[in-house]
Write a structure and sequence with these properties.
Length: 347
């Protein structure tokens, strides 16, 4: 791996402020917020804008947190606000179904990203079939990709390609990768896939979202994700306005307007952000222990309610190798830690 970016090409950039950022926004986006953000992103030249509950279509629930506004209304609002960018949604098989996908198409999506745990690409076959039948650009998301080696991920990506994926992403859901990890995984997919493009989605828990995105580009990534101000789960994602400035300096700008993005980050997202994600004590623990980034706010809340250190909860979840969909483990682990502590005090 080199840092020259000589092998990199201008990537397709997908913004997920209105989907991954929904985790940080506790799924409370309003239609007016979505309209303003989607319009600003469209005018700044991003290829696609992902809009959905943070956990994908159908995610609004007691397990993942209720959305303030129905996501179909948010998708429609985004679609009405863009002149050029594609509107996309995320779907996790088991959470989202054909019903939600069909409604999202009617609301205006042109692309769906189908996300599975990186060991379970085989459960996505039917969903890629539906996406293609509905005329969508179809993208595969191999989540928690730090948990498996490059050659294993390449096999999973081949499955998604065989189901019809146009792009397959290495998703560093835990923000646990070092640049060499991102590089090796993207490289393996580039070498294995014959038709599908390769993408990379970063989280900043170890402060490496930008570095890992550049490593992915050096490895040949065709698509990359980012969010305004890195607004996303855990310590957030690669910050879009920073990525645009860096790509521009490196001669790799795919057509993004750097100054429009700086304004969008500062004046459109900035005033409504619930908080600025950054690698704080608990977020670094997530990257260090390889825990799903979306567990951060749940662990902080449950830890506060029960008087248990969120860092201890997150480290234990890492030890148990919890993955997406196992949000119920957070409360269970917290209760066990509390019980253990009470037992130790009684002894
Ligand atoms: C549903 C997740 O938030 C998808 C994602 O962005 C990730 O795994 O990272
Ligand atoms: Mn993410």
């Amino acid at each position: 791996m080199s840092w020259t970016l000589k092998s990199a090409k201008p990537p397709v950039v997908v913004d997920t402020t209105l989907r991954d950022g929904s985790h940080a926004h506790r799924h409370q986006y309003t239609e007016a917020e979505v309209r303003a953000i989607a319009k600003a992103l469209d005018e700044a030249g991003v290829y696609a804008i992902e809009v959905a509950h943070g956990d994908g279509l159908g995610g609004s629930s007691i397990q993942y947190g209720f959305s303030r506004v129905d996501e179909m209304r948010l998708i429609r609002a985004a679609r009405e606000s863009v002149a050029r960018a594609k509107v996309a949604a995320l779907l996790l098989p088991g959470i989202g179904t054909r019903k939600e996908l069909k409604e999202a198409v009617e609301a205006g999506i042109g692309m769906v990203r189908i996300a599975t745990q990186c060991t379970e690409a085989d459960i996505s076959e039917q969903h890629f079939g539906m996406a293609k039948e509905m005329g969508l650009e179809a993208v595969g998301f191999l989540m928690m990709a730090h948990m498996r080696p490059p050659e294993f991920l390449a096999e999973q990506a081949l499955l998604m390609e065989s189901y019809g994926a146009d792009v397959v992403y290495i998703v560093d859901s835990a923000g646990a990768m070092l640049p060499q990890d991102a590089y090796a995984r993207v490289r393996a997919l580039k070498e294995a896939l014959s038709r599908a493009k390769v993408g990379f989605h970063a989280h900043n828990n170890l402060g490496l979202a930008m570095g890992n995105t550049l490593a992915a580009l050096e490895a040949g990534a065709d698509w990359v994700d980012a969010t305004l101000r890195g607004y996303g789960a855990g310590a957030g994602n690669a910050p879009l306005e920073v990525l645009a400035a860096v790509l521009d300096k490196a001669g790799l700008n795919p057509g993004l307007d750097v100054f429009k993005l700086l304004d969008a980050a500062e004046y459109v997202l900035g005033p409504i952000q619930h908080f600025q994600p950054f690698p704080d004590r608990d977020a670094v623990a997530i990257g260090y222990a390889g825990v799903y980034s979306t567990f951060l706010l749940h662990a902080k809340r449950i830890g506060k309610e029960l008087g248990v250190d969120p860092l201890a909860i997150l480290l234990e979840l890492g030890r148990r190798q919890a993955v997406a969909g196992q949000e119920d483990w957070i409360l269970r682990v917290a209760l066990e830690l509390k019980e253990k502590e009470a037992g130790a005090l009684a002894d």
